[in-house]
Amino acid sequence: MVVFLGSNLMKFLAYCILVCFVTVPLVEGRVRHYKWEVKYEFKSPDCYKKLAITINGRSPGPSIIAQQGDTIIVELKNSLLTENVAIHWHGIRQIGTPWFDGTEGVTQCPILPGDTFVYKFVVDRPGTYLYHAHYGMQREAGLYGSIRVSLPDGESEPFSYDYDRSIILSDWYHNSTYEQAAGLSSIPFVWVGEPHSILIQGKGRFNCSTPGIEAGLCNTTNPECTPYALTVIPRKTYRLRIGSLTSLSALSFEIEGHNMTVVEADGHYVEPFVVQNLFIYSGETYSVLIMADQDPSRNYWASAKVVSRNSNTPNGLAILNYYPNHPRRSPPTVPPPGPRWNDTEPRLAQSIAIKSHQGYIHSPPQTSDRVIVMLNTQNRINGNVRWSINNVSFNLPHTPYLISLKHNLLHTFNQNPPPDGYDFANYDIYSVAKNVNATTSNGIYKLKFKTTVDIILQNANTMNPNNSETHPWHLHGHDFWVVGYGKGKFDKFKDPKNYNLVNPIMKNTVPVHPYGWTALRFRADNPGVWAFHCHIESHFFMGMGVVFEEGIEKLGSLPTSIMGCGDTKGFHRP
Questions:
Q1: Residue 433's closest CA among 465, 470, 385?
Q2: Residue 63 CA, distance from chain mean position
Q3: Where are the transmembrane segments (predicted)?
Q4: Residue-wise over 395-433: b if at least 16 C-beta within 10 A, else e?
Q5: 38-40-41-46 Cα dihedral, nearest 10 degrees
Q6: Distances, alpha carbon 571 to alpha carbons 75, 105, 319, 409, 419, in Å
Q7: Dihedral sign, Cα of residue 123, residue 125, residue 126, residue 131
Q8: Can you tell me the distance from the alpha carbon of 102 to that of 93, in angstroms, rounded to the nearest whole number?
Q9: Cα gap 465→430, rounded to integer Å
């Protein structure tokens, strides 16, 4: 049957087609597929030859470059032969896909040697993120990389630049993660010590003349340890996306003779401020703008120095290469020495200076439903040195929490939750605890879905007199508002009155400074089970972490690919 339409109706239908198909933007992103093979290879990132964990032969691994709304598929083959593996997508909230967060023991079973596992998730926000191993202490063996998510075409950011570059800062040990883990678990305790080198984009320089180095192991002419060179065109502006994946070190990063304007932190726009050196802690990302406005006839040093620890690790060095100078041409100056390692004031000042960009503020809830104060202490448990939260040191279970909670396997972990606080009135944060003994547990915090939670990270003295360390804490599955920092002991009656509830920055990783406190606020609105832990590898290994569960009943069926360990050994796994 043929229907003839009047001219007015035809015009109306044409208008509808124009509105529906032209003015309404398509929101579906692209699918970006990666095939990665993880394996050990001999590498010399600081001129010293040792085994490193690589992705497709590279460390750092390949960068993931995507647009907001894209779906990322990573087909990961574990060719480590004798080790399991898991990869965490650091800063990606995994909304609707908590099983692909990549946290062994929390959201999935590890990937066995020879197996291939497929991660699939959406990058729902623009910004600078990271990925890294989340099994044992593999991250510090070189298994990490960067994620860069840009805005959709046609959208703009509140700053402009000519070129976009990513840089990862890391520290590097010559002894293996097995040796380190064995020392941390032994009686007497054997500390991992300070790193041998600082790497900038996977490159450093160890002193091969160090006494005791076996012949042939260290070679300064190896091209693998040629300093990283960032080539710039004079008068152009560069966005440097700087991420830290150190296993221990807090760093100060600077570029000789160049100011840096901080514009982004952990995927959120910052009210711009200028620094000469950027303090950055493990798990953090920043975007800074630099202008190549210095004498173009020479190159300049970029330097990364360890702070907050009295470290003997040499500064990591790279070269800011002004085109057309040769990228290997050394600058004519001495590298900048960096700030004093124990000067906490400028580090605290930078933390306080980071505020949300006007026009991009996500207003926090003005009140919270629950407050959890977490006292960070160093302890002994049955002779072992551990880190604890409110006198409880964390252990991962053999069956991942996500599976246990969804399948009601509650016998697989302790059903008693950790404490919400500590003896605030009587505990002296400036002294070694009178009783340093603590307990271990794999109990978790159960959060009421869609409630607002405040976390107060309270630092204290270690088991060494007059010593308090910096701890960068990372929350999986969420961003949080950083509502306050302070010195000394947090006062739960007075300090909340001074919270910044107007323009706090949102982050996923934040430091708690020596003998200080940091206050966070977040919404428990992402169904799943999420780790919250110190991002220093050895500290998390020693128990410095907790786990949050929220809205687990809202999840559908779990993929069987995450199963196969602990009490899920009998579950089907393709």
A1: 465
A2: 15
A3: none
A4: bbbbbbbbbbbbeebeebbbeeebbeebeeeebebeebb
A5: 100
A6: 22, 16, 52, 13, 33
A7: negative
A8: 11
A9: 9
- Number of Cβ within a 10 Å radius of residue 329: 13
Rg (CA), the chain: 25
Strands 50-55 and 31-43: antiparallel
Cα gap 477→95, rounded to integer Å:
7
Using alpha carbons, select from 458, 460, 523 the residue that is nearest to residue 490: 458
Handedness of CA 498, 504, 508, 510 (dihedral sign): negative
CA gap 423, 438 in Å, rounded:
14
pLDDT tens-place values along the chain, 574 residues long:
333 334 443 444 443 333 333 333 344 689 999 999 999 999 999 999 999 999 999 999 999 999 999 999 999 999 999 999 999 999 999 999 999 999 999 999 999 999 999 999 999 999 999 999 999 999 999 999 999 999 999 999 999 999 999 999 999 999 999 999 999 999 999 999 999 999 999 999 999 999 999 889 999 999 999 999 999 999 999 999 999 999 999 999 999 999 999 999 999 999 999 999 999 999 999 999 999 999 999 999 999 999 999 999 999 999 999 999 999 999 999 999 999 999 999 999 999 999 999 999 999 999 999 999 999 999 999 999 999 999 999 999 999 999 999 999 999 999 999 999 999 999 999 999 999 999 999 999 999 999 999 999 999 999 999 999 999 999 999 999 999 999 999 999 999 999 999 999 999 999 999 999 999 999 999 999 999 999 999 999 999 999 999 999 999 999 999 999 999 987 755 5
In angstroms, the CA 523 to CA 511 distance is: 20
Angstrom CA distances, 146 to 9, 129, 165, 321, stand at: 54, 6, 11, 22
CB 318 within 8 A of CB 229: yes
Nearest to 523 by CA among 553, 480, 555: 480
Q: Is 223 helix (H, G, I), strand (E, B) or coil?
A: helix
